Amino acid sequence: MVTFGLILAAEAALDLLIDQTAPDTRLDQLSPSRQDKIRKVFAGRQKDNAEIGLLQCCNLDDRLTVAAKLGLWRHTWLPKQVTRSSAHNPGQRPGPSRQSYGQDF
Q: pTM for the full model?
């Protein structure tokens, strides 16, 4: 139950970040087939009189894709790409080395 709550909180935070960064072009980052599916979900929810936006009809993976394509991760410590060696070294913290902190900001 706690994990589900964390996922919901992450989705809400991503919605805010995406909405502030690219309010008009956010769905352009997704494939046309995925955009169509989201618009169908949106139309179905509008029929039920739900006050909801297109972004709230996205799945978590859609939100993560949009955030990655907009470059929202550039100010975090998350690695640009997970490599096989970093995945097999659980004791080693992923991300930039200590020497590179502060150089991008």
A: 0.64
Lowest-pLDDT range, 38-42, 76-80, 82-86? 82-86
Widest distance between CA atoms in the chain? 54
Query: What is the secondary structure of 66-94 as a DSSP string?
Result: HHHHHTTTTTSSS-SS--HHHHT-TTSPP
Report how far residue 84's alpha carbon sits from residue 23's, in angstroms, rounded to the nearest whole number.
Answer: 35
The helix/strand/coil state of 105 is coil
pLDDT digits (tens, 9 = 90+) for 20-60: 888 788 889 999 999 999 999 999 999 988 788 888 899 99
**Residue 27: DSSP 8-state:** G
Is the separation of the CB atoms in 105 and 75 below 8 Å? yes
